[in-house]
TrEMBL record, chain A:
InterPro entries: Ferritin-like_SF, MP_mOase_hydro, Phenol_Hydrox, RNR-like. Gene3D superfamilies: Ribonucleotide Reductase, subunit A (1.10.620.20). It comes from the Bacteria. Pfam families: Phenol_Hydrox (PF02332). This is Aromatic/alkene monooxygenase hydroxylase subunit beta. GO terms for molecular function: oxidoreductase activity, acting on paired donors, with incorporation or reduction of molecular oxygen, NAD(P)H as one donor, and incorporation of one atom of oxygen.
From TrEMBL, chain B:
It comes from the Bacteria. It comes from Pontibacterium sinense. GO terms for molecular function: monooxygenase activity. This is YHS domain-containing protein. InterPro entries: Ferritin-like_SF, Phenol_Hydrox, RNR-like, YHS_dom. Signal peptide: none annotated. Coiled coil: none annotated. Keywords: Monooxygenase, Oxidoreductase. The keyword Cell division does not apply. Residues 410-449 form the YHS domain. The keyword Oxidoreductase applies.
Length: 328, 500
C-alpha cells in the first residue's frame, strides 16, 4: 500500500526557457540544459577588446576550427557548476581519507630512501606540468566559444590546480613539511636533462594562440601520454617495486583522468564529425604536437621506466584517436 | 620524526605560489602579453598578498555542501509551488529585471576573471581570479535555476538571454560589463574587482536579495545567502588588487584614480535600475534607495576612501553630484519605464496610495514637489481609461546608454544634456560624468551599439516599433509587458488565489 499526499497542482504556462525549447522542444529541461545552452552572449557587442581589437569580445574566430553550433560539445558528464563540485567533493573525500591514512600510519617509512628519491625525481616535478595545464585550460575557457565547452575547460583548469596541489602534498609528506622535496623536484624541472624537453614544451604551449589547438595539445596529446606513462605505467612499476602505497596518493589523479578522458574524447568525436576541414585540421595539430611530445617525453620515459614505455603510451593514445575518428 | 607544522601562509606558498617558474625556452612576455599596455607598473608579483588561501580540495568540499543545501531548497520550492508565497505578483517583475539584466553580468564576470586568471603574470593573483571566475559561473547558473520555476508560471523570463543581447535598457548593464572586459586586465580588476564587487555590490546584489527576503521569495533569498561567502572572498580580492597596484609603483596612482572616477560614475548610473526596483517595485519595502545609498556608499564607501587616502587616492570625481542624485534617480527612472511600459520586458504600474505616501515620507525634499504630481496625473488618466504610453523612442546617452531621463541636479525640471564632437560627429550624454568618460576614450565609445540608433538605422527589423518589439526582441506585447493591471500574470495570480 502506498500513501499519497495531496498537493495543489498548478498547470505551468511553459516548461522551460524559450532558447531551450527551440533546441529541445516544449518539455521540462534538465538543469544541465538550462545552465548551459545559449547562456553566453552572442551578438551586438559594444566595444572591441583593447587587447585584441581584431576580435569581438566573444568571437568564434579565436580558433581555426569551425563549428555550425558550438553547443554541439555536450559534456557527457553533464557538468554544470553544482554537479561538478559535488562530484569532485566526493573524490576529494576519498583522497583526504587516503592521505590521512598514509600519514597516520607513516607509510613513508616503508618506501625506503631510494624509492622516495625516485618519486621526487619522476612524480613530484609533474606539479609544474599540472600548473601549465591549469593555464592552458583557463586560456581555452576565456578565449573559447559557447558555454558547453568553456565551462568544461574551466572545470578542467581548476582540476589541474587541485592536482598540482595534491602532488605538492605528496612532496610535503615525503620531506616532513620542510619543502625540501618540492625544492629538489623543482630543481629537476628547471635543470635536469630528462625534464628539459617537457619544460620547453610546456612553455611553448603557453604561447600557443589557437585555443582549440591548445586543447588538442594539452588535454588530448600531452595528458594522454603523460597520464599513461605516470599514472598507469609508473604506478605499476611502483607497485612492483614496493611503492604500492603511493597509489593511495595518486588515486585521485587516476579517477580524474578516467572522468576527464570521457569528456576530451567526446569533444574530439564531435569536432571530427563536423567536417572534413575540421578533421584535417585536427590531424595536423595532433601529428605536430604528438611528435613534439614524444621527443620531449622519451628521455623521461626511458629513465623512469624502460625503452618500450613511450611506445606503449603512444599506442594507448593512438587507440583513442582512432576511436574519435581521426586518421582513418 | 614528526612532520613539522606548516602555517597556512607557508603551506599555500608551497602548494600554489611555488608552481610557476622562470621561463628559459619561450618568451614569458608572449605568454603573458597584456600586462604593459595600460601603463601600470608591476615591479614584483611576489609582493602579492593572497586575499584568501583556499586550496582546491577545500573549495570543492565547501562549495559542494553549499550547493547541496541550495538545490534542496530549489526542489522544495518547486514541489510546493512556493511562488504562490510571494507578497504580491508585482514583486516578480523585480526578478525579471534580475534575470534579464544582472545574471548575464555574472556570466561576463566569469569570462572577465577567467581572462585575468590566465593573463596575470603572478600566480597568486591568477589563482585568486580563477576562483572568482568559477564562483561567477556558479552565480549565473544558480540564478537561472532559482528562476527556472518562476519562468514556468510568469511571463517575461523566457527570453532572458535573447533579450539581454538586444533590448534597449538591457544594453545599459551589458555595455557596462563589455566596457570592463574590453579594457586591459588591470582596469578590469579596478572596474569589477574593486569598484563593483568591493563597493557597489552592496547596492546591487544586497537590495535584490533583501527584496526577496522581504517579499517571501525563498528560492532567491536562499541563493543570496549561499552566495554570501563567495562575495566575501570577492571583496577581499578587490581590496587586495587596489592596494597591490598602489603599492607597486607611484606612477600607478593617477591611472588607478582615473579608473576609480570612471567606474564609480558608470556604477552609479548602472544602479539607477536598482534604485527604481527598491523604491517602486518591491511591494514590501526594504529601505529607500536614498537610505541604501547613504548607508552603503556614503558611510561605508567614505570610510574606505579615507583609508585609501594614504596612497593619494581621492573620493571619486562627481561624488558631490551623485550625492544629490539619490533624491531623484529612482523617480525619474520608474516614470520613464512607466511611460515606455509597452517596450519593457516587465510590467509597470502606478504606485498605490500607500506607496505614494511612503515615497513622500522617504523623500521629503523632492517627492511631493517634483514627482508626486506626475503620479496623481497618471492616476487621473488611468481612471479615465487613458493609461499613458509614449510613442517616442528615447535618445540615449552614448556612454551609459540610459535614456536622457536625468535632470540637472540643481534644477530637477531641466533635463541634462551634454555633447562632444569627435571626428565630425556629435555625441550626446546625460551628464558631465558620462561626457568625461567619452572624451577620455572616444575611439572606444563611438563603437557603442546604441539600441535606439540601431532601430532607426533599420538594423533591428521593423518597420514599426511594434515589429521590433515582437520580432527582434521576442517580446509578447501585453503579456510580457504593459500595465500590471489586467496582465496575464495578474489574472493567473487571482485565479490561483481564488479571487475575482
Amino acid at each position: 500500500m502506498s500513501i499519497e499526499i495531496k498537493t495543489a497542482t498548478l498547470e505551468p504556462v511553459r516548461n522551460t526557457f524559450a532558447h531551450i525549447e527551440r533546441r529541445f522542444g516544449d518539455k521540462p529541461a534538465t538543469r544541465y540544459q538550462e545552465a548551459t545552452y545559449d547562456v553566453q552572449s552572442e551578438k551586438y557587442f559594444h566595444y572591441r577588446p583593447l587587447w585584441q581589437p581584431e576580435m569581438e569580445l566573444n568571437d568564434p574566430r579565436r580558433t581555426a576550427l569551425v563549428m555550425e553550433d558550438w553547443y554541439a560539445f555536450k559534456d557527457p558528464r553533464q557538468f554544470y557548476y553544482g554537479a561538478y563540485v559535488q562530484q569532485r567533493a566526493k573524490m576529494q573525500e576519498v583522497a583526504e581519507s587516503n592521505y590521512s591514512f598514509f600519514e597516520k600510519r607513516d607509510l613513508k617509512r616503508l618506501l625506503g630512501d631510494d624509492l622516495q628519491k625516485n618519486v621526487i625525481r619522476y612524480l613530484i616535478p609533474l606539479r609544474h606540468f599540472e600548473h601549465t595545464a591549469n593555464l592552458n585550460n583557463m586560456y581555452g575557457s576565456s578565449q573559447g566559444y559557447g558555454t558547453a565547452i568553456t565551462q568544461a575547460l574551466l572545470y578542467d583548469g581548476m582540476d589541474r590546480l587541485g592536482i598540482a596541489q595534491y602532488l605538492s602534498r605528496i612532496g610535503l609528506i615525503l620531506d616532513g613539511n620542510s619543502g625540501d622535496a618540492l625544492g629538489e623536484a623543482k630543481a629537476y624541472w628547471m635543470n635536469d636533462e630528462i625534464w628539459q624537453g617537457m619544460r620547453a614544451l610546456c612553455e611553448e604551449t603557453t604561447v600557443t594562440k589557437d585555443w582549440f589547438e591548445l586543447l588538442v595539445a594539452q588535454d588530448l596529446v600531452l595528458d594522454g601520454l603523460v597520464y599513461d606513462l605516470v599514472f598507469n605505467q609508473y604506478d605499476t612499476w611502483l607497485a612492483d617495486n614496493g611503492g604500492q602505497d603511493i597509489s593511495m596518493l595518486t588515486e585521485f589523479m587516476q579517477l580524474w583522468n578516467k572522468d576527464n578522458t570521457r569528456w576530451v574524447d567526446a569533444v574530439m568525436k564531435v569536432a571530427v564529425a563536423e567536417s572534413a576541414e575540421n578533421k584535417a585540421l585536427l590531424e595536423g595539430w595532433v601529428t605536430n604536437w604528438k611528435a613534439k611530445a614524444v621527443a620531449a617525453l622519451t628521455p623521461l620515459a626511458e629513465e623512469m621506466l624502460d625503452a618500450e614505455a613511450m611506445d606503449k603510451a603512444v599506442a594507448a593514445l593512438d587507440k583513442r584517436l582512432t576511436k574519435a575518428g581521426l586518421f582513418k | 620524526m614528526a612532520a613539522k607544522k606548516l602555517n597556512i601562509k607557508d603551506k599555500y606558498r608551497l602548494l600554489t605560489r611555488d608552481l610557476d617558474w622562470e621561463y628559459s625556452y619561450s618568451d614569458r612576455k608572449e605568454a603573458f602579453p597584456y600586462e604593459d599596455f595600460e601603463g601600470i607598473k608591476i615591479t614584483d608579483w611576489s609582493k602579492w598578498e593572497d586575499p584568501f588561501r583556499l586550496t582546491m580540495d577545500t573549495y570543492w568540499k565547501y562549495q559542494a555542501e553549499k550547493e547541496k543545501k541550495l538545490y534542496a531548497i530549489f526542489d522544495a520550492f518547486a514541489q510546493n509551488n512556493a511562488h504562490m508565497n510571494v507578497s504580491d505578483p508585482r514583486y516578480v517583475n523585480a526578478l525579471k529585471i534580475f534575470l534579464t539584466g544582472v545574471s548575464p553580468l555574472e556570466y561576463q564576470a566569469y569570462q572577465g576573471f577567467a581572462h585575468t586568471g590566465r593573463q596575470f603574470g603572478g600566480v597568486g593573483a591568477r589563482v585568486a581570479c580563477q576562483m572568482q571566475a568559477i564562483d561567477e559561473l556558479r552565480h549565473v547558473q544558480t540564478q537561472i535555476h532559482a528562476m527556472s520555476h518562476f519562468n514556468k508560471f510568469f511571463d517575461g523570463f523566457q527570453e532572458y538571454s535573447h533579450m539581454h543581447d538586444r533590448v534597449w535598457y538591457l544594453s545599459v548593464p551589458k555595455s557596462f560589463f563589455n566596457d570592463a572586459r574590453a579594457a586591459g586586465p588591470f582596469e578590469f580588476m579596478i572596474a569589477i574587482g574593486f569598484s563593483f564587487e568591493y563597493v557597489l555590490t552592496n547596492l546591487l546584489f544586497v537590495p535584490f536579495m533583501s527584496g526577496a527576503a522581504h517579499n517571501g521569495d525563498m528560492a532567491t533569498v536562499t541563493f543570496g545567502f549561499s552566495a554570501q561567502s563567495d562575495e566575501a572572498r570577492h571583496m577581499t580580492l578587490g581590496l587586495e588588487v587596489i592596494k597591490f597596484l598602489l603599492e607597486q609603483h607611484e606612477d600607478n596612482v593617477p591611472i588607478v584614480q582615473k579608473w576609480i572616477d570612471k567606474w564609480f560614475w558608470r556604477g552609479s548610473r548602472l544602479l539607477t535600475i536598482v534604485s527604481m526596483m527598491m523604491d517602486y517595485m518591491l511591494p514590501n519595502k526594504v529601505m529607500s534607495w536614498k537610505e541604501a545609498w547613504e548607508v552603503y556608499f556614503e558611510e561605508a564607501g567614505g570610510a574606505l576612501f579615507k583609508d585609501l587616502a594614504r596612497y593619494g587616492i581621492k573620493m571619486p570625481k562627481y561624488a558631490d553630484v551623485i550625492e544629490k542624485e539619490k533624491e531623484h534617480i529612482s523617480h525619474q527612472a520608474w516614470w520613464t519605464f512607466y511611460t515606455h511600459g509597452h517596450a519593457a520586458g516587465f510590467h509597470t504600474w502606478i504606485p498605490t496610495d500607500e506607496e505614494l505616501d511612503w515615497l513622500s515620507e522617504k523623500y521629503p525634499e523632492t517627492f511631493d514637489k517634483y514627482y508626486r504630481p506626475r503620479w496623481e496625473l497618471a492616476k487621473e488618466m488611468e481612471a479615465k481609461g487613458e493609461r499613458f504610453y509614449t510613442k517616442a523612442l528615447p535618445q540615449l546617452c552614448t556612454t551609459c546608454q540610459i535614456p536622457m531621463l536625468f535632470t540637472e541636479m540643481d534644477d530637477p525640471t531641466q533635463t541634462a544634456y551634454r555633447d562632444s564632437v569627435y571626428n565630425g560627429e556629435r555625441y550626446h550624454f546625460c551628464s558631465d560624468g558620462c561626457k568625461d568618460i567619452f572624451d577620455d576614450e572616444p575611439e572606444k565609445f563611438v563603437q557603442s551599439w546604441l539600441p535606439v540608433h540601431q532601430i532607426f538605422q533599420g538594423n533591428c527589423g521593423g518597420p514599426d516599433v511594434g515589429d521590433v518589439l515582437s520580432d527582434f526582441y521576442h517580446m509578447n506585447l501585453g503579456a510580457d509587458n504593459m500595465d500590471m493591471k489586467g496582465s496575464p500574470d495578474d489574472l493567473r495570480w487571482k485565479q490561483w488565489k481564488g479571487v475575482a
